[in-house]
Amino acid sequence: MEKIIKKAETLIEALPYIQAFQGKTVVVKLGGSAMTKPGTTARVIRDIVFMEAVKMKPVLVHGGGSRISERMKAAGISPRFIQGLRHTDATSIELVEEVMRDINAELAGMIKEMGGRAEGLVARKDPTILASKHLPLLVGEDGAEHPTDIGFVGEIVSVQARNLRRLAKADVVPVIAPLGRDEEGQVYNINGDMMAGEIAAALKAEKLVYLTDVEGILRQAEDGSEPILLSSLNRREITNLLREGVISGGMIPKVRSALCALEGGVSKVHIIDGRLKHSLLLEIFTDRGIGTEIINT
Length: 297
What we know:
Strand order of the largest sheet: 5-10-2-1-13-17-18-16
CATH topology: Carbamate kinase
Order of helices and strands: HEHEHEEHEEEEEHEEEHEEEEHHEHE
Number of domains: 1
Structural class: alpha/beta
Largest sheet: 8 strands, mixed
CATH architecture: 3-Layer(aba) Sandwich
Mean pLDDT: 88
Distance between the termini: 45 Å
Number of helices: 9
Shape: globular
Low-confidence stretches: none
Number of strands: 18
Radius of gyration: 19 Å
CATH superfamily: Acetylglutamate kinase-like
């Protein structure tokens, strides 16, 4: 009986959050790194189906970097990264698109199997994401920075939010691969974190949640003990942590994307460990969340 009462208490704790977030858009970025642990993806999808069932408007953006690298190696192509971006030649972009279509179909299929409704969006002919070629500034032989072609790597020109809003209104979960097209129809590979931030800003989402393979934003303890989780930060504090080098590596594109989303009108961004059971629901529907929240102040 005690276990049953605890379950009821958990539901009561979630009630005000369920009421507050009905009809609100929450963009979820499921990183490829978080997807590698067995069972993680299925749990995340179940959480998203729950969100849709209580009348929230979840939008799922997924990655797939590890599977892309595996497919490239199987094809005899060595993955190369420049400034954290995958060098993507004509052969590679075909492989990237194939892998993303496979992952996208799997995720949309899982939502449907669990009783939800979903539509996969993968570099459509009428693109949700309008993109152009990204030319990073790299130092040349003359010691100066020059725009450099690294293949079919894209940057977002605009997000066509109308179709996403139409799906949300019909209680359908958009499942979006990080690919875009330019005006000529060429497909580009786009950083998934930046795409999630741009989509969240275009939809004026209530929340943007990054599911990754770390607890959140961490700071090394001065006494050399376990790193300290920074549970709540604002935009100014994030900027300072970037300047100080506390935020580094793969966390940089996430927090830069988070800042863009907040500047675009998103209310709050969360960076949480997607490997933890039901981390998405714990962050949204409980009095004490997990991970790092970044507030729009």
